[in-house]
Write a structure and sequence with these properties.
seven-stranded antiparallel sheet; 31% helix; Protein Transport Mog1p, Chain A; elongated; single chain; 11 helices
Length: 437
């Protein structure tokens, strides 16, 4: 039921925005259908308890085997073990391990692999290094006592580290959540809940006396994470291997940071690890969208999904959105704007007034007089003169940037709720900064 409610709320918000931006009720209805059928809000996608319990069992067995055969585990990751949906991602999450034979860190690596990801010194500190995976938008401090080696551009495993003297190991993994597109916010919450339940169920299926000493959701530097501390017996039964693991889930990425060591070593690190983890930063990841057949392009958050029906205005429009904002690119022949001059640059005050009046009149007609508070002004964006307009339609804020170039009227538009404005301002700024025509 909660899936259907969330889908309905999102669809309603998007429809209001599309009508405001395009004046096209048919396109709005298509966007609603897309949002409802896009594969992000279907109850059918939720894994059944039996499936998830089976996944937990398999995951735990693989984890125990990987702990004692780390080279094989890393090799499996290198072969491309990338989760393609929520169930597979949850199954994969507990598996990252570090190599412990000391060979990888000493082996010569191609320069391309050394460049991704990056570790760097931290000013005024010698105890830690900063690990940066800018491709996936993830940063965290790690202990400088580790010898670290990146795993190149592998789709899942991105860093391994080891202190061979005391046996401390580190694994950092990043992976896409779902190849069908970003998760909705409520699905992110469900993902964490599923992961916690699977960790609990893995105890009863453990062949090596798995024990969980900590399992809870935490907020770390503004990011929600599942924190798990667990231990298992080694095959010979003589010692216990401990894992201190943090799992972060965003709408389009999962990040796993895992420290592994002999259980007897943990008192030396159980206070240090949370301190290192407080440095976590997860930043916005962007993707480029382009109006087909043109050079009209910009960058939007990777969590945005395509809301445009492929059969409607395929060559003149792109519309992407998430739960916070909708972003549209529209290219139209100048003739459809009878009041538009060939260029917006160098217009007299009188001619500028005519353009603003024409845009407002068209907006009122497109929205059936639902737009309120229209404010228009001329300004320059990336060296191009445009009209920036701000107004509201049915409680949603709208902001648009209109250009005239090469016989086309090109519009970059945003629709969002007022309560989200502070959070989405950086998105608007990035989209305008990366706008190309």
């Amino acid at each position: 039921m909660k899936h259907r409610i969330a889908a309905a709320l999102l669809s309603f918000s998007l429809v209001l925005g599309i009508v405001a931006m395009t004046g096209n009720p048919v396109l709005a209805q298509q966007a609603m259908a897309t949002a409802q059928a896009g594969g992000k809000v279907s109850d059918a996608q939720a894994a059944s308890p039996d499936m998830q319990d089976k996944a937990a069992s398999e995951s735990n067995k693989q984890q125990e085997e990987a702990a004692q055969k780390p080279n094989a585990a890393d090799a499996a990751v290198k072969r491309g073990a990338q989760p393609t949906n929520r169930e597979a991602a949850v199954k994969t999450a507990p598996q990252p391990t570090a190599q412990n034979d000391g060979t990888a860190k000493n082996a010569p690596q191609p320069e391309a692999e050394k460049q991704y990801p990056v570790t760097a010194a931290v000013e005024d500190r010698t105890d830690v290094l900063e690990f940066a995976d800018d491709k996936d938008g993830f940063r965290v401090l790690i202990p400088s006592e580790l010898t670290v080696y990146p795993l190149g551009v592998n789709p899942v495993a991105v860093l391994r580290g080891e202190n061979t003297e005391n046996g401390l190991r580190l694994a950092i993994d990043a992976s896409a959540i779902d190849n069908r597109g970003p998760l909705m916010p409520f699905q992110v919450e469900a993902f964490r809940s599923d992961f916690i339940r699977m960790v609990k169920s893995s105890v009863k299926d453990s062949a090596n006396d798995k024990k969980i000493s900590l399992l809870k959701e935490e907020e770390i530097n503004g990011q929600k994470a599942v924190h798990v501390v667990s231990s298992t017996l080694t095959t010979d039964g003589k010692r216990r291997l401990l894992r201190d693991e943090y799992v972060f889930v965003t709408q389009n990425r999962m990040f796993v940071v895992m420290y592994m060591m002999d259980e007897k070593l943990y008192p030396q690190y159980n206070a240090k690890i949370p301190e290192w983890m407080q440095s976590v930063q997860i930043s916005q990841v962007w993707k480029k969208i382009t109006v087909k057949g043109t050079n009209f392009t910009t960058e939007v958050p990777a969590s945005c999904i395509d809301l445009k029906d492929p059969t409607e205005l395929e060559k003149t429009m792109e519309i992407y959105g998430n739960e916070s904002i909708m972003i549209g690119l529209v290219s139209s022949p100048r003739e459809t704007f009878g009041f538009m001059p060939e260029s917006l640059a160098g217009l007299s005050a009188q001619d500028q007034a005519k353009v603003l009046e024409g845009l407002q009149t068209k907006l009122m007609a497109d929205t059936k007089n639902a737009a309120t508070g229209y404010r228009g002004e001329f300004l320059s964006v990336n060296g191009e003169t445009c009209v920036k307009a701000a107004y509201e339609v049915n409680g949603s804020k709208n902001e648009s940037y209109t250009f005239v170039k090469d016989g086309k009227v090109m519009e970059l538009g945003f629709v969002f709720k007022g309560e989200n404005e502070t959070a989405i301002r950086p998105v608007i700024a990035h989209a305008t900064e990366t706008l190309q025509m």
